[in-house]
Task: inverse folding
């Protein structure tokens, strides 16, 4: 049901989009443990999906959105125990991009995240990942021939995403291909 609601929300955006594209990339994700004296280990995660954007006011400012599948993988160690978090989200970015020149642009905004799977190995007692959360994202976009490019970004969450984990973060790079 959540997936149907996400797709219905994106239909009006798709109708007015001026650019469509594909994104695929990797990120180094982490989070803070709410358990005292626990340490967090970063893990490599995948992200990919559709992007769209439309001009706002002029061709220097764009609103970027889309639908991206995102992994959030990290490990938390406490005493002799180790827990691997392997969570999967559908992200809906709502980003504002400002063009610096023909090749470089800066962006920032919010990713609304819908949790579609939250595995923890071994299993933990608790409520599991929240079904809806958000992270703030900032980054730089490089574009070549108005068709190929990549994003380098940083994401930071500010809320608790389950009973044991708070403030997810990620550094990542996405390769981009735009359909003209």
Result:
């Amino acid at each position: 049901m959540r997936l149907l609601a996400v797709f219905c929300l994106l239909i009006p955006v798709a109708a007015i989009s001026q650019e469509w594209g594909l994104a695929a990339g990797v990120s180094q994700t982490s989070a803070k443990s709410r358990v005292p004296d626990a340490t967090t280990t970063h893990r490599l995660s995948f992200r990919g999906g559709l992007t769209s954007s439309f001009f706002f006011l002029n061709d220097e400012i764009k609103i970027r959105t889309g639908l991206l599948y995102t992994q959030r993988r990290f490990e938390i160690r406490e005493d002799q125990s180790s827990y691997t978090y392997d969570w999967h989200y559908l992200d809906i970015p709502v980003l504002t991009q400002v063009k610096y020149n023909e090749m470089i642009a800066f962006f920032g905004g919010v990713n609304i995240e819908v949790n579609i799977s939250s595995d923890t190995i071994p299993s933990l007692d608790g409520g599991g990942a929240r079904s809806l959360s958000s992270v703030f994202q900032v980054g730089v976009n490089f574009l070549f021939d108005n068709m190929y490019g990549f994003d380098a970004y940083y994401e930071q969450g500010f809320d608790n995403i389950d009973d044991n984990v708070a403030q997810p973060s990620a550094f990542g790079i996405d390769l981009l291909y735009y359909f003209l």
Observations:
- The beta strands are 19-33, 39-56, 58-78, 81-99, 104-121, 132-144, 148-157, 165-179.
- The longest helix spans residues 2-16.
